[in-house]
TrEMBL record:
Top-rank lineage group of the source organism: Bacteria
SUPFAM superfamilies (UniProt xref): Glutathione synthetase ATP-binding domain-like
Gene3D superfamilies: ATP-grasp fold, B domain
Pfam families found in the cross-reference section: CPSase_L_D2 (PF02786), PreAtp-grasp (PF18604)
InterPro entries membership: ATP-grasp (IPR011761), CPAse_ATP-bd (IPR005479), PreAtp-grasp (IPR040754)
Record flagged with keyword Glycosyltransferase: no
Domain ATP-grasp: from-to ranges: 167-374
Organism whose genome encodes this protein: Micromonospora humida
Name by which UniProt lists this protein: ATP-grasp domain-containing protein
Keyword field: ATP-binding, Nucleotide-binding
The keyword Nucleotide-binding is annotated on this UniProt entry: yes
Length: 462
């Protein structure tokens, strides 16, 4: 049976809680949306790496036993057996019959007639396609096999996911915004940078972000007037070379913060808006690292987030959006909440954790969902990782470690060693001190598997 979290999500997306979903976890959909927009010079918007593509296995945590999850590669048999053993509902996995390493999973499906025929049968029986986000590729997939989307089309997703759109929505809703500007031409950027020249000379920082940057890509921190001048020269030269003065970026002041937040809003098909949860987010250089649950907000801070969630959801609904929305926020050193730092109208990392925390995090417990980077000289078996982590908590007791994605560990094992891997896990403990100690133990245990022992960022304690 589906978890309460998944039944609720299906009810809001499909209109009933037992519908069947076909999931495609197309991480970094922003790369497709960014093609029609002009961002920072030399920003790396290349296709996702194999490691990023293997993150699609996180869909196992969200999909129900009667749903279908499409993955580029099969689940590791030992990992699948582990999920069965710990009682997580595992969906059916469908793998395209024609796979190419340099394509997205959706592109593989479009080149796989047998799988397309199967999806057409599911669509005729009432199933719906739920991508992480809709791009032109997922829209083409839905049309080609008659599998209707559970969410809007690519045009809606592209429109509501730009950072320029997000800042303007925040202003129109009357919410406290991070001070900054939206730029759509080189001249607008020049004007904004000139206004910040004195602040930069005094040692303050600003950040310039691509409208469709993601995971730290397309982000540039400026802390001197010279850096601002160099950026503007690069932008001007490109505009002259291409005869195109367009530029789609936002410029924001770099605010000190106590911590980051991430909250999820769902805009239902019937028009209702609900705040699903708030989590404390862990970031490093703009790159998501994980979440701590609960967030530890005061009642007043939670009320402010709830108010913002309703306003954001209603405006997205009015612009044609239906589905999950992840919103990044920050709390400054004085406890002031900036409730909208960025709007990601798509499934988010925290979306995939909902069913798992429902099953594994008991009342009063604290949890940490995070990634652990690895540097390996050879592929590591799931059994080896499982044994090393299981030894940290034993077979009984309140603390728990759940491996949430294994495919990313050996995704680049065909490269010359050492190669980088990544393990995703959920840690649950009775209090923050025990959670911190458990995180330290996991990092040490995984470090012993590594060719070199990487320094993991540590942000568990409030």
């Amino acid at each position: 049976m589906d978890t309460g979290y998944l039944r609720s999500l299906k009810h809001r997306l499909l209109g009933e809680p037992t519908g069947r979903l076909v999931l495609v976890c197309n991480f970094e959909a922003e790369h497709r949306w960014a093609r029609q927009h002009v961002g920072l010079p030399n920003a790396d918007f290349s296709a996702g790496t194999n490691l990023v593509r293997r993150m699609e296995e996180l869909g196992v945590l969200l999909a129900g036993v009667n749903d279908l999850l499409i993955c580029k590669y099969p689940l590791d048999p030992a990992y699948r057996a582990y999920l069965d053993r710990i009682g997580l509902p595992v969906p059916e996995i469908a793998v395209p019959e024609n796979v190419s390493a340099d394509r997205s999973t959706t592109e593989d499906v479009l080149d796989s007639p047998a799988l397309l025929a199967r999806l057409a049968t599911l669509g005729a029986a009432g199933a719906r396609l739920l991508p992480m986000a809709t791009t032109d590729l997922e829209e083409k997939l839905a049309v080609s096999c008659g599998l209707p989307l559970a969410v809007p089309d690519a045009a809606v997703f592209e429109r509501v996911n730009g950072k320029i759109y997000g800042r303007r929505l925040t202003a129109a809703a009357g919410l406290r915004a991070v001070p900054g500007d939206e730029c759509e031409t080189c001249d607008e950027l020049a004007s904004v940078l000139d206004r910040y020249r004195a602040a930069l000379a005094a040692g303050r920082r600003i950040v310039v972000k691509d409208a469709y940057g993601v995971s730290g890509k397309g982000l540039l921190v400026l802390d001197t007037p010279g850096k601002a001048d160099r950026l503007l020269r690069m932008v001007r030269r490109r505009a002259e070379r291409t005869a195109d003065d367009r530029l789609h970026v936002v410029v924001e002041e770099w605010l000190p913060k106590r911590y980051d937040l991430n909250y999820q809003v769902t805009v239902a098909r019937d028009g209702s808006v609900r705040l699903d949860f708030v989590k404390r987010a862990l970031t490093d250089g703009g790159v998501h690292q994980g979440h701590i649950m609960p967030a530890g907000l005061t009642d007043a801070q939670y009320a402010e987030i709830d108010h913002a969630a309703q306003l954001v959801g209603v405006r997205l609904r009015d612009d044609g959006y239906v589905g999950v929305v992840g919103v990044d926020a920050i709390v400054d050193p004085d406890g002031v909440v900036y409730p909208v730092l960025e709007i990601n109208a798509r499934l988010n990392m925290s979306t995939y954790q909902g069913s798992l925390t429902e099953l594994c995090q008991g009342p009063g417990q604290v949890a940490l969902a995070r990634q652990y980077p690895l540097s390996l000289t050879a592929a590591v078996s799931f059994a080896e990782i499982d044994r090393s982590l299981a030894a940290l908590v034993g077979s009984s007791g309140p603390d728990r470690i759940v491996i949430t994605c294994f495919g990313t560990v050996n995704a680049d094992a065909d490269r010359p060693p050492p190669f980088n891997g990544r393990l995703y896990a959920l840690l649950v403990a009775t209090d923050t001190d025990r959670l911190t100690a458990l995180d330290d133990a996991v990092r040490a245990s995984l470090g012993r598997l590594s060719a070199t022992r990487p320094l993991f960022s540590r942000e568990v304690s409030p």
